[in-house]
Amino acid sequence: MFEGILEFATVAEYGSFTKAAQRLRVSTSHVSRQVSALEDRLGVKLLNRTTRVVQLSELGQRYHQQVQRVIEGLQEANQTAISNHADLAGPIRMSGAGPFVEEQVAPLLVQFAAQHPKITLEMDFETRLVDLVDQGFDFAIRYGVLAESGMIARKLSSRPLVCAASPVYLDQHPAPLHPLALRDHSCLVINNDLWRFSDPNQKTNIELRVSGRVRANSIVAAREAAVQGLGVIYTPASNVVSQIQAGTLVEILPEFVDTTRSHWLVYPERQHMPTRVRAAIDHLIAGLDNK
Predict the structure, then answer these.
(1) Reported confidence tier of residue 240, pLDDT bands at 50, 70, 90
(2) Structural domain contains residue 224
(3) How far apart (Å, rounded) are the C-alpha atoms in residues 151 and 267?
(4) Residues 146 and 218 in one domain
(5) Which of these, 124, 136, 197, 207, is most buried using a 10 Å CB contact count?
(6) DSSP annotation string for 166-201
(7) What Å distances lie between residue 228 and 2, 25, 168, 193, 223, CA to CA?
(8) Shared domain check, 189 and 57
(9) Which of 156, 244, 130, 240 is nearest to 190 (CA)?
């Protein structure tokens, strides 16, 4: 009686058989067969399919609204049953990179997994920007300006940036007095060569492309290059606080640094989130709030 309904609703939500299959962790052909069988049983066309786009038919839109209420009721019943059970179970997949993720987020997720033995945890620390839906991630940690649409974002922390260089470098290259002067300096690129600053007088943003002797996707490598005098580093203050306190790095352009950057937790916009994922996110946010 209910065969194909979940597959249909998931295709309607994501607008794609492939994405629906990834979300349900089944094959695309299985989803297609189930939806086709549902249409055959009902004797109506629920989806208009082309080579690139899947759209709800007029009947499909009305049917989706009705079955969505049924699915919501079933999911609510399931979540009620799960919440009354001590054990959460199933996979949780997170994507994120950088010291904040590895040193603060990851330990909290490991702590959550330790509290729930039936949870499996996968943490991807690659610096690439993953597609959460296409690649099946439950949530990601992003830093800076968010470019993704169709995502829910929750701010985790605000982290002021620091622009710094070693005394050795500054002895050989006079400290810049304005961000645009960095074009004449060796700038250590960490993933992104577009650096953003703020002009406190004109209340405008300053953007420039930088280049230098070292490019890395590791803050540790870039920080060491800065300490050794290979160039200027621009990074969250927490990444270089020890070096600045020790005097191996010296802050420059403090009045121009961008103070608006934040870490964000982002996840796909959907009506229902698995209880285990919601619980993990709540644990993560509570843990960060207490730090």
Answers:
(1) very high
(2) yes
(3) 6
(4) no
(5) 197
(6) -HHHHHHSPPPSSGGGGGGS-B-EESB-EEEEEETT
(7) 65, 48, 8, 20, 9
(8) no
(9) 240
Domain span holding position 209: 161-252
DSSP secondary-structure letter at 28? H
Q: Are residues 49 and 71 in the same domain?
A: yes
C-alpha 162 chain-centroid distance: 23
Residue 90 above 90 pLDDT? yes
**Quick check: 233 and 215 in contact, CB under 8 A?**
no
Q: What are the tokens at 67?
A: 């079955």
Residue 258: φ, ψ to 5°: -80, 115
Residues 179 and 123 in one domain: no
Does 219 share its domain with 96? no
Categorize the per-residue pLDDT at 86 as very low, low, confident or very high, splitting at 50, 70 and 90: low
Structure tokens at 177: 């007095």
Same domain for 14 and 77, yes or no, is yes
The SS3 call for residue 187 is: strand
The DSSP output letter for 257 is B
